[in-house]
Amino acid sequence: MNYAEILEKIYNELEPTLGEGSVANYIPELGKVTPDQLGISVCTNEGDEYTIGNAERLFSIQSISKVFSFALAYKLEKENLWKRLGREPSGNRFDSLVLLENENGIPRNPFINAGALVVTDILLQHFDNPLDEVLSFVRSISGNPNIVINRNVQESEISCADRNYALAHFMKSYNNINSNVDHLIKTYSGLCAIEMTTVDLARSFRLFSTSGCNPWTHERVLTTSQNKRINAVMMTCGLYNAVGDFAYRVGIPAKSGVGGGIVGVIPNEMSIAVWSPALDETGNSLLGIKAMEMFTTLSEKSIY
Ligand code: DON
């Protein structure tokens, strides 16, 4: 399979539409990003890498960080994690409050904002500094020791975090948040403000395509069962209320973020990361989804 040719075909076809959609401006710092950019990076389990476009440009990974936090919390809590979280798609926007009251403050899954706040709360119970722990995990699986948090983005997000504050306080009223809410939001916003490139993301997601082993050291990080389950939750909940359409069009476990990144796993074969900052109405990268759809179509690789 000539992946370099496939990436070129995707880029050439999407180039005339660069900039369609709109960047996430509800976080002021993200609203400053130039929309007409597209980068794609593929890493095979054999270690071959293919890139095109703005593949090496740093961007805010936002909700993609929820996969890293969830993997760490799941390793720590194992099946106990599910006492405080569900694993069903919500069918609602990522920042929705609507289901929480009927469901007693238990978020539907770890990838909507409510669920990621619970996961962050769990990390705060285990670690003095969860930001350092997640960063060192991400650096180790991506093989890049220079990955950092963009503090301007973190501050910008904290300054407009009313919905996340509302979610956290509401869950606290059900005793499903233990930490101080200010500290929780600061930590959660720091995780969302981690910056990576598509190359970093594709490399780090080889953890999930190689059944839970660190791609560089080959050391086992997750059991094969934990890895299967993380991929399953990405498949069913990774793109919020667009997850059904994404499964239909693309057909791989993946996670998106409002920074315009999407990273997916073709189990036992490869990982693929795309970035294009302009989003569709569900908060997912418009060209990113198109690029992923073209990739699985042209390569005839999906899990179905
Ligand atoms: O909490 C928020 O709203 C953002 N930091 C993350 C949202 C996000 O990336 C959802 N993704 N599509």
SSE order = HEEEHHHHHHEHHHHEEEH
CATH architecture: 3-Layer(aba) Sandwich
CATH fourth-tier homologous superfamily: DD-peptidase/beta-lactamase superfamily
State the share of residues found in helices, binned by percent: 40-55%
Which descriptor suits the 3D outline?
A: globular
Distance between termini? 19 Å
Adjacency order of strands in the biggest sheet: 2-1-7-6-5
Query: Class in CATH?
Result: Alpha Beta
- What is the number of helices? 12
Integer average pLDDT: 97
CATH topology: Beta-lactamase
Our count of domains comes out at 1
- Low-pLDDT segments: none
Strand-helix topology:
Elements: H1 3-14, E1 39-44, E2 49-53, E3 59-60, H2 65-77, H3 113-126, H4 130-142, H5 151-158, H6 162-172, H7 181-192, E4 195-196, H8 198-204, H9 206-209, H10 224-237, H11 243-249, E5 254-256, E6 261-266, E7 270-275, H12 286-299
Antiparallel strand pairs: 1-2, 1-7, 3-4, 5-6, 6-7
Helix pairs in contact: 1-12, 2-3, 3-6, 3-7, 4-8, 5-7, 6-7
Bound molecules: 6-diazenyl-5-OXO-L-norleucine (DON).
Could you explain the architecture of this structure?
The structure is a single chain. The model has no long low-confidence stretch (mean pLDDT 97). Strand 6 (261-266) and strand 7 (270-275) form a beta hairpin. The chain has helices spanning 3-14, 65-77, 113-126, 130-142, 151-158, 162-172, 181-192, 198-204, 206-209, 224-237, 243-249, 286-299; strands at residues 39-44, 49-53, 59-60, 195-196, 254-256, 261-266, 270-275. Helix 4 (130-142) crosses helix 8 (198-204). With 304 residues, it is an alpha+beta fold. The protein has a single domain (3-299), classed as 3-Layer(aba) Sandwich (Beta-lactamase). Strands 2-1-7-6-5 form a five-stranded antiparallel beta sheet, with helices on both faces. It has a two-stranded antiparallel sheet with strand order 3-4. The chain is built from twelve helices and seven strands. The protein binds 6-diazenyl-5-OXO-L-norleucine.
